[in-house]
Amino acid sequence: MQKFEKKDLKKKSVNLSEWYTDIILKAELADYAPVKGCMVIRPYGFAVWEKIQTFLDGLIKEKGVGNAYFPLLIPEKFLNLEKEHIEGFSPHLAVVTIAGGENLKEKLVIRPTSETVMYQMYKQWFHSWRDLPVLINQWNNVIRWEKRTYLFLRTSEFLWQEGHCAHLTEGENREMVLWGIKAYEKTYAELLAMYGLIGIKSQTEKFAGAKETYSIELLMPDGKALQGGTSHDLGQNFSKAFDWTVLNKEGKKIHPWQNSWGFTTRSIGGLVMVNGDDNGLILPPRVAPIQTVIIAISSGENQKLAEYIEKIQGILEKSGVRVKSDNNITASVGRRFNDWEVKGVPIRLEIGQKEMEKESVTFARRDNFDKGTVGIDQIEIKIKAILGEMQSLAYENHRKFTLDNTYKADSYDQFKKIMTGKRGLIRAFWCEDKECEAKIKAETKATTRILPLDAKKEKGKCIYCTKAAVNRWYFAQAY
RNA sequence: CGGGGUGUGGCGCAGUUGGAUUAGCGCGCCGAGUUUGGGACUCGGAGGCCGGCGGUUCGAGUCCGCCCACCCCGACCA
Question: What are its GO cellular component terms (predicted)?
Answer without folding.
Answer: aminoacyl-tRNA synthetase multienzyme complex; cytoplasm
